User: Which sequence fits this backbone?
């Protein structure tokens, strides 16, 4: 039996599917009974609850052979730092109380750095918590998700370009979440791998290269990239409704990308390179202009 957190999300949902296809019993944890219906239809046990409720989460972890854990962001949960600390401490306490022997944790490139990485600093803190457990733990550290472009689709359609603060000549490892899920499911079935596994996608890409491949496949041929000044981007994001603390963390993460401090340490190998290209990712989307 495996417990999967975020079982309605991009990685957790796919992990649940892959484990069930392999015949593994799954407890699928999420906040919405309606959204967990698909996992239930695949034979998983739907567990509806709040992962900051440590008692609930301990029950969800009780007696399982392994768990897939991640740090979801709840925009309604108040400030980012406090919300992530509540989530992280609850997950770790529940894993420890239930005595889960094997854990696969979604992390990120850059999670080895304690500060200066924006959003990713919370993953450093969580890796430290999980690493102190009496359990075998595998940290998956992927690069930038292709899915991170999707929240900007409306703006892309309106302006004919994607705008951000990553320098246009900075090449980054980019990956589809389906490939992260495949790595997680593989590890949870074997339960023989610990430490860190980097997941780098098929190749490093600049943001202009990524959006140039994305655009034609979502009905936006000629989609370009605009590197906005930090202050202008901050004003635009806050004006669009993003909380100020999240805006600042986004800019700090991008600045770390620009400085080259969020990077692979393992390098490209057969183990770190994953198959799905941005074109294949885009072709699978059901969104068109």
Assistant:
């Amino acid at each position: 039996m495996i417990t999967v957190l975020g079982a309605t999300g991009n990685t957790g949902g796919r992990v649940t599917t892959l484990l069930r296809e392999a015949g593994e019993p799954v407890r699928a944890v999420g906040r919405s009974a309606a959204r967990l219906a698909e996992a239930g239809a695949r034979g998983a046990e739907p567990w509806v609850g709040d992962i900051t409720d440590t008692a609930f989460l301990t029950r969800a972890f009780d007696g399982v052979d392994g768990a897939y854990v991640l740090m979801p962001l709840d925009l309604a949960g108040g400030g980012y730092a406090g919300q992530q600390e509540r989530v992280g401490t609850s997950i770790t306490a529940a894993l420890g109380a239930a005595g889960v022997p094997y854990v696969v944790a979604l992390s990120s490139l850059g999670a080895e750095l304690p500060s200066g990485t924006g959003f990713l600093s919370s993953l450093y803190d969580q890796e430290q918590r999980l690493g102190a457990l009496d359990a075998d733990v595998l940290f998956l550290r992927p690069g930038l998700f292709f899915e991170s472009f999707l929240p900007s689709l409306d703006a892309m359609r309106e302006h004919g370009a994607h705008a951000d603060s990553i320098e246009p000549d900075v090449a980054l490892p980019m990956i589809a979440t389906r490939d992260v899920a495949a790595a997680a499911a593989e590890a949870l079935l074997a339960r023989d791998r610990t430490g860190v596994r980097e997941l780098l996608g098929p190749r490093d890409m600049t943001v202009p290269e990524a959006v140039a491949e994305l655009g034609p496949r979502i009905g936006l041929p000629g989609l370009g990239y605009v590197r906005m000044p930090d202050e202008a981007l901050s004003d635009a994001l806050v004006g669009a409704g993003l909380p100020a603390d999240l805006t600042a963390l986004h800019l700090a993460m991008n600045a770390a990308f620009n400085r080259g401090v969020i990077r692979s340490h393992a390098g490209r190998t057969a183990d770190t390179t994953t198959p799905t290209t941005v074109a294949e990712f885009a072709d699978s989307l059901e969104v068109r202009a």
Summary: The chain is about 40% helix and 15% strand.
